[in-house]
Amino acid sequence: MKTILIVGASRGLGLGLVAEHLKRGFDVIATVRKAADEAELKALPGSERLTLHHLDVTSDDDIARLAKDLPADLDIAFINAGISGPKSVVTASADELNQIMQANVFGPVRLAHALIGKVRRDTGILAFMSSIMGSIAENESGGMEVYRASKTAQNSLARSLWIGSAKEAGVTVLSIHPGWVKTDMGGAGADIDVDTSVTGIADQLAAHHGAHTHHFVDYSGREIAW
Ligand SMILES: NC(=O)c1ccc[n+]([C@@H]2O[C@H](COP(=O)([O-])OP(=O)(O)OC[C@H]3O[C@@H](n4cnc5c(N)ncnc54)[C@H](OP(=O)(O)O)[C@@H]3O)[C@@H](O)[C@H]2O)c1
Q: Per-residue pLDDT averaged across 94-123, rounded?
């Protein structure tokens, strides 16, 4: 029996990751922001192995409370929460720019630092939901510039976290691109459905067990250039 924490599980990929890992026999700990979002999770097959917590990744108080309440033997901590934010760095307000950086960068990375001691030494995995849009090398189309920058910054801080504390503890760090997925964020015209993405992501988590590296991979295992 393995234990996975999934942060940002109310809908979309987070909800899909909970369903997939319950199907695979994991004990799942998941977070939502609103009590109203618990019902769909509690109705999933295998939900007798599901524990729910409330967390906004931008709240230091929520991060401290979750870190205190979690067991110290997480096989995987998966920080999925994220927003798409404003389209243009020029027209966005300072509040909008601050909000996306708090939600996609500083909140997730500060949470990861708070959780690193709860992830199993030597075999555990700390995963961030990044995006191919965070790749500078593979940006050939532009667009979504603030979102891109947020995921690039998240990747950079994930690397620093790996070097600073995860590597010494033998914890593997993954920055994962889920594909372009049909969710509220991805839209109906996206390439793949949630099931295809989360099945591939769960396979990648299993494949990187004990890897002791920081890699940027997509749901199919393709290595993405930084
Ligand atoms: N869909 C794609 O094509 C795609 C591609 C590349 C990367 N991604 C990444 O995949 C992740 C999930 O995206 P999705 O497509 O599933 O989007 P989504 O359907 O919009 O879901 C976003 C999730 O993040 C949660 N969230 C947002 N801000 C939060 C905060 N401050 N604290 C805690 N939870 C928060 C939301 O909770 P609420 O319900 O409470 O708002 C929701 O559970 C994101 O990090 C996104 O950047 C998605």
A: 97
Residue at 31: amino acid letter:
T
Q: Tell me which of 3.40.50.720, 3.30.565.10, 3.20.20.70, 2.60.120.260 is the CATH number of domain 3-218.
A: 3.40.50.720
pLDDT band per the 50, 70, 90 thresholds, residue 202: very high
Statement: the pTM of the whole predicted model exceeds 0.90 = yes
Amino acid 200: pLDDT? 98
Amino acid at residue number 100? I
Please check the confidence at residue 1 and state whether its pLDDT lies above 90. Answer: no
Angle, alpha carbons 216-201-44 (nearest 5°): 145
Please work out whether the CB of residue 131 comes within 6 Å of at least one atom of ligand 1.
yes
Q: In what helix (H) or strand (E) does residue 32 lie, and over which residues does it extend?
A: strand 27-32
Q: How many angstroms is it from 211 CA to the middle of ligand 1?
A: 26
Whether the CA torsion 43, 45, 51, 56 is positive or negative: it is negative
**Distance between CA 151 and CA 119 in Å, rounded?**
23
Q: What is the mean pLDDT of the chain?
A: 97
- Asked whether 152 lines ligand 1 (CB < 6 A), one says no
Domain boundaries, the chain: 3-218
Q: Which amino acid is at 58?
A: T
Whether 135 lines ligand 1, by a CB cut-off of 6 Å, is no
Section 77-89 average pLDDT: 97
| CA–centroid distance, residue 15 to ligand 1 (Å) | 10
